[in-house]
Amino acid sequence: MAGSRTNRPSELLSTARFREFLDEVKARYDLVVVDTSPLRAVADTLQILPLVDALLFCVRDGRSTRDQVAGAKVALGHLPEVPAGLVVTGLTKDQRDNYGYYSYTQVYGSS
Fold first, then answer.
1. Which tens digits make up the pLDDT trace of 87-99?
2. What is the separation of C-alpha 93 from the centre of its chain, rounded to a whole number of angstroms?
3. Within a domain: 46
4. How many domains does the chain have?
5. Nearest to 35 by CA among 87, 78, 75
6. Distance from chain centroid for Cα 14
7. Angle (nearest 5°) at CA 93 between 91 and 98
8. Is the Cβ–Cβ distance between 81 and 47 less than 8 Å?
9. pLDDT recorded at residue 41
10. 35 lies in which domain range?
11. Would you give the end-to-end CA distance of the chain in angstroms?
């Protein structure tokens, strides 16, 4: 066992030890990926985001709603800006042709 159980595991993410851990692994490795729960599902992700260098936001075609994505944008607007990317998952081969390859169609945070 790695340690004792806690009733509030999300509180561990706001500790100095967790920040030290992230600093240590970022210094040791070229790339550190922190896979979190959905942005608005629990508070964990919002606690981790200020500690990372970039954000890769994933949405699932046909499952993620416009309201969910808009709510995520609002939540992210309350945090320091970091470089961000978007991944759309769940596309079938036929649907991929409906999406073009564009770059910087909208700068994050602008309307």
1. 888 877 765 555 5
2. 26
3. yes
4. 1
5. 87
6. 16
7. 70
8. no
9. 67
10. 9-96
11. 48
| Predicted structure pTM score | 0.65
| Cβ pair 17, 50 in contact under 8 A | no
3-state SS, residue 93: helix
Rounded-to-integer distance, Cα 37 and Cα 85, Å = 17
- Residue 40: pLDDT above 80? no
CB 47 within 8 A of CB 13: yes
CA distances from 88 to 1, 4, 56, 69 (A): 37, 38, 11, 12
| Region of residue 82 (left: phi > 0; alpha: psi -120 to 50; beta: else) | beta
- Give the per-residue pLDDT at 20: 94
CATH number at residue 64: 3.40.50.300
pLDDT tens digits for range 55-74 = 898 888 888 888 888 888 88
Measured between alpha carbons, how far is 23 from 52 in angstroms, rounded to an integer?
10
- Computed from CA positions of residues 19, 36, 28, 2, in that sequence, does the dihedral angle turn out positive or negative? positive
